[in-house]
Design goal:
Elements: H1 15-26, H2 35-40, H3 47-55, H4 64-75, H5 79-88, H6 95-112, H7 118-130, H8 134-141, H9 149-155, H10 162-172, H11 177-185, H12 196-212, H13 219-222, H14 231-244, H15 247-260, H16 266-286
Amino acid sequence: MMPSDSVTNYPEQTFDARLSRALNHLTSFHDGDDSVAEILALGTDAIPALSQILTQREPSGLFQVRCRAVEALAALKAFSVLGDFLRKRRDAADPVERLGDDAVVGAAARAVAHLREPWVYNLLADLARHRPLQGVLAGLGSFFCADSLPIFVDALQEDHLRLTAEAILRGFGFKARPALVTAALEPGEGTEWESVSYLRKRRSALGVLSEIGVPRRDWPRLCPLIDNPDHQVALLVCEIGIKLGSATDHVRIAARLRDLRPSAGWIHREQIDELMRSLSSLRIDDD
């Protein structure tokens, strides 16, 4: 009986042949998702080939193959290779290629963060300051180091980063409160106006504060924002004030809500009605 050309014959093949077969699977759109285990069976000797795949250019913007290489390198504990890749990254001139590169950088940042070493934290913090990406923020956020809080607060300005930054800040819990209060109070780029992105940062900071809870001692600093010209900021502060404010504050909040309701859209109108009901229930309890 002739021997079959099957997986059971792999031990008789040379390492180079097995590596070539595994890499062919890794770069295949049909077999790629199942190829990482095959690469891992080859052990650390596969690291140089994976490193070469990771660092090669991909003008098409496709990133799946390089992300599989990241997964395999992380499983092989090749964190130094991932770190070198992140240090040496260069932004491609072509926007399509750059999008693919960003996806790979994000995957590498998440992967290297599993190594809880100071050099990893410092590397990710440096990357996040210069060009934050979702994966970089996620990797950095997994350390929950208070020194990185300003990075996540600043990321609230960016639409594509806001949800990631908010989730990380919620994870910090009470440690994030001082930075969020400061962000909510900062007037932006001028006293007469502020950019849309900075305004969104203030809204987001207040929203996270409302979720994690505001210390009563911080309420007097936030209270003046009841009269903020931005309706969303005012509503968020009113919601906080219903929980923390005095009876005098509640009268002021009720007046502000009545002023806001006629010009509010239906979503904010529903929010205003709910806040008014909360105020009414407080008065009933006081009676």
